[in-house]
Design goal:
Number of strands: 0
Largest sheet: none
Distance between the termini: 21 Å
Helix content: over 70%
Shape: elongated
Order of helices and strands: HHHHH
Length: 146
Amino acid sequence: MRDHVLLSVHVLAAIVFVGGSAVAASLFPRYAPVAGPPGEGERSPSVAAALHRITRGYSLFGLVVPAVGIVMALAQGRMGELWIVASMVLTGVAAVLLATQIYPRQRDALRDPDDGSRLRALSMLAGFYNLVWAAVVVLMVVRPGA
């Protein structure tokens, strides 16, 4: 029963919080302001600001995912398994990428818009962030070495 509750919390938190931060990070460049006269398209500083707040808030709540995952792995005696270790390393990579690159670049883009070149780089980083999480999901499903 305990394992089912932990797994449910782990998966639901991953879907809601990690998924929410991934979507917000991906959508931000589309709505962030660019320097120059207002142009056509979907630019909306207020939407970008909301996505920036969502990126931060959901990523903070997303800390539940690795915390519960570690508790579950410890309870099951699986901390040394390759797929668990690889997932934790990739989760750390995603966290560092979000905290040191994506979130600060979003803040800078809101504070000081440029011609869009920084937004293109930010979009690439968000894509990489999403790929890292996709790799974690694959590891959770396939569980190599388990």
